[in-house]
Design goal:
This protein has 14 helices and 24 strands. By secondary structure, the chain is an alpha/beta fold. The structure holds ligand EPZ.
């Protein structure tokens, strides 16, 4: 076991380079299964979720070669298995993309129900309905999703999503890419990673239009061919460093970003009094004075992302006045609150609303990460706090942030990765 040890209150200065987008990579890598050939995928982040996906691809029979630390070559020509082992798929949410990809390639998929961060109930009914609309029979038996296309293959159809679900939109795109005829997804999600998956599939010969709007049209093609593709930069990783500068202070250039994807985050930071300046494929973030209170409501893209809610809450703990946060996507995304209170934060949670009364200072404490973004928010709070903060269960954080310690150290932060004796880990309180 390892933990982070942070000595806070050191303003951040310098340049940080953003890695490839986790939530694009975890869909694009399984999508390589649809290709009867070789895909070279660049700008993949070095994070544990990606390592798991690559292991699943290997277990299924793909030839996976790391060309360098951020480029992988996947040859799916000889894949002959469509059963994703439970021990791997249960460790991560995104294993559900193997259902759409395997269904599209073989007309068959057996995938254990996905795991991932505990953010409340995380149903996959919309994924299942989409596969069924395409003609597949889908059963959930003994913890496994078993999907099977009819003999004549999947057939293009009209899919209306009751909610603009990211995962269901991507899974429907995967399965429909090689279906017969036209599929129209209505009320589709519009996140940047949806567009990235569509661009990847199109680069491999698919025919997908409208990704990034709420109507996506997919004309099924007989097969996809190999090719090279580079994954977009991670919107949430960039947002996390932006929030860190806001909370801690300093002047940082965040490179390798698509500033348009950050507009929803920049707007809120600017409302708090933080300077955000676009510089081509970088943004410069500076905190000059005090942070102002704001209200935040999380919404599907282009609204403020739920995956940035804990990080902005860390900033609001130190803002001037009382802020309101309204979580519009997940029912259980305030599990970090009990940890922040240990640092002296004043937060009340009622259902989906958190009321945060800004305090003059946070004090370092011993914390326990409870999910990926909550863990990132604890790092921000630790960097902004007086004294020493220790964060355990960092495996959650490493699921989604490449080289977080090195990147913050490069900005002048005093953060270290240290070995932790097993008996030091405190069970996380679920009181909130
Ligand atoms: C993706 O999860 C991301 N994960 C999440 O990021 C992110 O929080 C979420 O989208 C929202 O942006 C990946 O991309 C791997 P949804 P996903 O389907 O696809 C309901 C992170 O920290 N819903 O868009 O699972 C659901 O309960 C992670 O990086 C159904 O009701 O999210 C939720 O309220 C955490 N039925 C809403 O829709 C379904 O079948 C949105 O979920 C599917 C979803």
């Amino acid at each position: 076991m390892q933990k982070y040890v942070i000595n806070g209150k050191k303003p951040l200065y310098g340049t940080v380079e953003i890695s490839g987008a986790k939530n694009a990579a975890v869909a694009i890598l399984p999508a390589a299964l649809l290709v009867d050939g070789v895909c070279r995928i660049e700008n993949i982040p070095q994070i544990s979720d990606v390592t798991l996906i690559l292991r699943i691809l290997q277990e299924l029979g793909a030839d996976v070669r790391l060309i360098n630390k951020n480029t992988v070559q996947i040859d799916s020509t000889h894949i002959n298995r469509y059963h994703v082992p439970e021990k791997l798929s249960r460790q991560m949410r995104a294993s559900y993309y193997f259902i759409g990809a395997l269904l599209g390639r073989f007309g068959e998929a057996v995938v254990s129900m996905p795991g991932g961060c505990d953010l409340g109930t995380r149903p996959i009914d919309l994924h299942i309905k989409s596969f069924q609309s395409l003609g597949a029979s889908v059963n959930v038996v003994a913890g496994y999703v078993r999907a099977s296309a009819p003999e004549e293959g999947l057939k293009g159809t009209s899919i209306y999503l009751d909610q603009a679900s990211v995962g269901a939109t991507m899974n429907a795109m995967l399965a429909a890419s090689t279906a017969h005829g036209l599929t129209i997804i209505e009320n589709a999600a519009k996140e940047p990673h949806i567009v990235d998956l569509a661009n990847f599939l199109n680069a491999m010969g698919a025919d997908i239009m409208g990704a990034g709007t709420d109507v996506i049209r997919i004309r099924g093609v007989r097969e996809l061919h190999g090719g090279t593709y580079s994954i977009i930069p991670d919107q949430i990783e960039a947002g996390t460093y932006m929030a860190a500068v806001a909370a801690v202070g300093g002047d940082v250039i965040i490179k390798n970003v698509i500033p348009k994807h950050l507009d929803c985050i920049s707007a809120k930071l600017m409302e708090m009094g933080v300077h955000v300046e676009e510089m081509g494929d970088a943004v410069r973030v500076r905190r000059m004075g005090e942070l102002r209170r704001i209200n935040v409501r999380t919404m599907p893209y282009p609204g403020f992302p739920t995956d940035m809610q804990p990080q902005i809450a860390a900033c609001l703990c130190l803002a001037n006045g009382t802020s309101m946060v309204n979580e519009g996507i997940w029912e259980n995304r305030y599990r970090y609150v009990s940890e922040f209170r240990r640092m002296g934060a004043r937060i009340q949670v009622d259902g989906k609303v958190a009321v945060i009364e800004g305090v003059d200072r946070l004090m370092g404490a011993t914390l326990c990460a409870c999910d990926l973004r909550a863990g990132a928010a604890m790092v921000i709070a630790g960097l902004a706090a007086e004294g020493t903060t220790e964060i355990s269960r960092i495996h959650y954080i490493e699921r989604g942030y490449e080289k977080l310690v090195e990147k913050f150290q490069g900005l002048g932060a005093d953060i270290k990765l240290v070995e932790q004796p097993d008996d030091e880990t405190r069970p996380h309180s679920r009181a909130v």
